[in-house]
Amino acid sequence: MATFSSLTDRLSDTFKNLRGKGKLTPADIDGTVREIRRALLDADVALEVVKDFTGKVRERALGDEVSKALNPAQQVVQIVNDELIAILGGEARRIRFAKTAPTVIMLAGLQGAGKTTLAGKLAKWLAKDGHTPMLVAADLQRPNAVTQLQVVGEQAGAHVFAPEPGNGVGNPVRVAKDAIKYAQDKQYDVVIVDTAGRLGVDAELMKQAADIRRAVDPDEVLFVIDAMIGQDAVATAKAFQQGVDFTAVVLSKLDGDARGGAALSVASVTGRPIIFASTGESLDDFEPFYPDRMASRILDLGDILTLIEQAQQHFDEEETRKVAEKFATATFTLEDFLSQMQQLKNMGSIKNMLGMLPGAKGMREQLDNFDESEITRTEAIIQSMTLQERRTPKVLNGSRRVRIARGSGSTVSEVNALVNRFEQAAKMMKTVAKGQMPQMPGMGPIPGAGFGGGRGKQVTKKKGSKSGNPAKRASENAALAAGLKPGEPAAPTGSGFGLGKGKGAAAAPTGDDLETLQKFLGR
Amino acid sequence: MADRSTPWSLGGALRGMFTKPTIDDDTWEDLEDALIRADFGPTITEEVVAHLREQVRRFSTTDPVDLKRMLRETLEERLARLNPTLTLSARPAVVLVVGVNGVGKTTTIGKFSKFLVGHGRTVIVGAADTFRAAAVDQLATWAERGGASIQRPQQQGQDPASVAYQTVERAQREGIDIVLIDTAGRLQTKSGLMDELTKIKRVVEKQTDIAEVLLVLDATTGQNGLAQAEAFIQHAGVTGLVITKLDGSAKGGFVIAVQERTGIPIKLVGQGEGIGDLTGFTPHVFVQNLVG
Questions:
Q1: Both A279 and A331 in a single domain?
Q2: What residues of chain A lie within 8 A of the CB of B38, using their CB?
Q3: Taking the CB of residue A18, how many other CB atoms lie within 10 A of it?
Q4: What is the ipTM of this complex?
Q5: 3-state secondary structure of B238
């Protein structure tokens, strides 16, 4: 989730210089605008968009609102944020479904943008929402694209309509047309048409895409674009807008470290909203695109809402409440620990989650080195214990530990380490649970939290950042999700939770924290 | 935007500026804009513009035609610093093809094998992309078109390193000249997958020296191309770059930054989906096409 990270880096650097100043002179603003321009260009935002953007920022920054403001730097940040949101589309839009089924969604884009993979992700996502999606193999160009779609469809549990073998054989327009009739017959309510990758300059293929569009009359035409694309984003987007007149944009490969300026370029040049973000190779790595959150992410406010949503989706509330009680009453056992850990794994990649936290940019490196299999190993150790041992770890004597080590394929010292960590964690959680629960509802909203990433010195736990969420009903869940993770650093955590008093700074989890976390989960 | 007659040239952007009678402030601004639009990136753009200003001053010229020639020379000189020749003299010569997702690795291998077979070499391709759905079949189709044999994984999701090993082993056994190994696309930020690449390399190196590790870069990529190159050099010891999709409207200016910052030469250029659309890299032609 290191999306836009490098853009974030650049902008935070710029703003760090501003932050120190009480008052801004026009020269300061010029300097800042130049930095913003450079940052945006480095982030592959298209030149015309950059010019437009910096022009607006400068104009507003020179205006009264800034010079009179108490903290002009903060004000400039606000302006940049506003403008980013304005370009990215302001509000999130969802897929428009047809009044009468089937809803037809057509995918288009350059070669290698990730259309076929996206088709699978979209199908899986729709199926989860109770739709019955069908995939249509209209990419008859690329060798074995049809086979790939079939495999992806199988993984997503969606039917694949592939009457033609592909590899240059067959007419994609006819396939697309037949697919609609087929879907009506078989009562699939969403039809996703995967088309061949094509270049914006390829008039012939562009016409073919337009023909497919005409043949199926789609409710949505999604333009899939690689987040790594450079200045060419504008030319390509314009060509596709002319060719197939797409209705919305999907940004793919957002899990890389690309600065993702393409998002800004495409949204700004075509005026079409970005509605989905694709963030990995697994079919679950797919999320709606939230412009406001993305702008916050650019400014390093983290992506707390996405995180909470994920936590809610996967955490069993009942279970969570039970565990919370256990924390407070110190009856938290290794058994609970295990089930928590399994829930955590359900949420998907821990790396992804950590990356969404404010200030997480500083530890991207560490995130990458974070070994998720540690969790599996820890799980193995606990699973090698008897129920009695899990409930009362005190009974673990030397010979039991040897047995557990053997059973889990680890060493005695690993078992020892786990037990020690568990004890410390249980102690810590007890403190935290008692001290912090009543405070939770009073938590201030995170947006006021300042740009923690810039300083990154205040050591707040992930836990702190996470619980500092405005969504109250989510707060408990989030606290627990977080509460489980950070290990030993019990002492400073207390203050981390008292986020309110810490001037609301959502400071960055440091590399040390992550290391601790890693230790806690594994060795 | 897309100029159809010269699909991947700065020409369109520069045409107006070189037809003016004299060099003025607008010329410089236009030049800078054109370079940025071609993905040269702010740093290289500034360097090139500063260098050209210096040149123009030194030769006290005001003729945009001179400027154009200087631009061409500057770029050519920067691109020609490294040797773009492929070294494939070992037998078997093992070539590892790496890159992020969707840049055209498999397609490049297809074209490259055709190219090599055309020069009378025997070629085997190893399908070490065991991750992406149907990647093996895609490669098999290309291998067939290119006239190469193929080593498939023996089972679903087999360790890519073992496929690479078997490919090299078979080449040694059957006396095949060139081994091309296709790897799964991976984003340079995924350290686990990057380690996997290191492993493939290590395993193959036990059998024989690796002749070339080619990093495939998509011409539409922006400044992230540099980050990609650096990561792949670190993990896979890249020895050459392949630029693909140059038939689109993207100019691929970032390759100058990549080549200069990493010291790895561009060796091949891909310009289409046809099997013959792959050529060796010649700075002169590249710049000619770029500047027009």
A1: no
A2: 231
A3: 21
A4: 0.80
A5: coil
